[in-house]
């Protein structure tokens, strides 16, 4: 079993839709969770991070962590064409020395 | 304030050639990382450096060497390039005590 699993998509939605992106992880000791956004031919950009279970909101983006089910989600409200990108979830390893990434979900928002 | 910079942006090598990918950061972060990104494989850690003077292997270190030249610079060297090393290479940095990493724009390498 991979340490972090992420459905690669692709996911296509119309402008204004609510988008749900999800990851699961295998090690219950993981405590630090991040979402990165990567535009085509660019480097990953840190979008959100959370150190605990529950929700964290930033504008149209909400990150949710459920440690009991080892499930990480990113919700995008009122999606825009500019949200079209690949979204990568990441968890910090137990030593805190490295990140373990999901393979990324490619999102396309059409106007 | 450039953040994390990488040179070159693109490179084409022939099998057996060598080259060094350069990474520099002005964020005053202690930790620096080299990843490769391949279709369907995600980001995989090659090497990292927790501080100046230290380096450690990641998930896929074979065929690569690194040098942490000083706090700002971390280079990745391919001594004898192979087609399997065709990839996009990203450098990243992390502040001590935190977990979030900040990435450079990447180097696209093709080995023919």
SSE arrangement:
The complex is a heterodimer of chains A (111) and B (112).
Chain A: E1 4-6, E2 11-14, E3 19-25, E4 33-38, E5 45-50, E6 54-58, E7 61-66, E8 71-76, E9 85-92, E10 99-101, E11 105-110
Parallel strand pairs in A: 2-11
Antiparallel strand pairs in A: 1-3, 3-8, 4-5, 4-9, 6-7, 7-8, 9-10, 9-11
Chain B: E1 4-7, E2 10-13, E3 19-25, E4 31-38, E5 42-49, E6 56-57, E7 64-68, E8 74-78, E9 87-94, E10 101-103, E11 107-111
Parallel strand pairs in B: 2-11
Antiparallel strand pairs in B: 1-3, 3-8, 4-5, 4-9, 5-6, 7-8, 9-10, 9-11
Q: Care to give the gist of this entry?
A:
The complex is a heterodimer of chains A (111) and B (112). Chain A is mainly β and 111 residues long. In chain A, 0% of the residues lie in helices and 54% in strands.
- State which percent range the strand residues of chain B make up: over 45%
**Class based on secondary structure composition and strand pairing of chain A:** mainly beta
* Average predicted local confidence, pLDDT of chain B: 95
Low-confidence stretches of chain B: none
Give the termini distance of chain A in whole angstroms: 38 Å
Structural class of chain B: mainly beta
Biggest interface reads: A-B, 22 and 22 residues
Considering DSSP H and I runs of 4 or more, what fraction of the residues of chain A is helical?
A: under 10%
The value of Rg of chain B in angstroms is 13 Å
Largest sheet of chain B, described in full? 7 strands, mixed
The SSE string of chain B, one letter per element, is EEEEEEEEEEE
**Oligomeric state:** heterodimer
Approximate shape of chain B: globular
User: Segments of chain A where pLDDT lies below 50 for 5+ residues?
Assistant: none
Helix content class of chain B: under 10%
Biggest β-sheet of chain A, characterized? 6 strands, mixed
Reading the helices and strands of chain A in chain order gives: EEEEEEEEEEE
The chain-level mean pLDDT of chain A equals 93
């Amino acid at each position: 079993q991979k340490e972090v699993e992420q459905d690669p998509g692709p996911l296509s939605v119309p402008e204004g839709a609510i988008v749900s992106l999800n990851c699961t992880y295998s090690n219950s000791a993981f405590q630090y969770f991040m979402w990165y956004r990567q535009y085509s031919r660019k480097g990953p950009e840190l979008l959100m991070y959370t150190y605990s279970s529950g929700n964290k909101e930033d504008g149209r983006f909400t990150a949710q962590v459920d440690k009991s089910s080892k499930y990480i989600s990113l919700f995008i409200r009122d999606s825009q064409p500019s949200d079209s990108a690949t979204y990568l979830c990441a968890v910090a390893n137990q030593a805190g020395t490295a990140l373990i990434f999901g393979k990324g979900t490619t999102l396309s928002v059409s106007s | 304030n450039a953040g994390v910079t990488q040179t070159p942006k693109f490179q084409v090598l022939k099998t057996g050639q060598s080259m060094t990918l350069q990474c520099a950061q002005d964020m005053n972060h202690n930790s620096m990382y080299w990843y490769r990104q391949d279709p369907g494989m995600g980001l995989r850690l090659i090497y990292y450096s927790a501080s100046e003077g230290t380096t450690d292997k990641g998930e896929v270190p074979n065929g690569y060497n690194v040098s942490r030249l000083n706090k700002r610079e971390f280079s990745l060297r391919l001594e004898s390039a192979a087609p399997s090393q065709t990839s996009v290479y990203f450098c990243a940095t992390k502040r001590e005590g935190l977990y979030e990493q900040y990435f450079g724009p990447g180097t696209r390498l093709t080995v023919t």
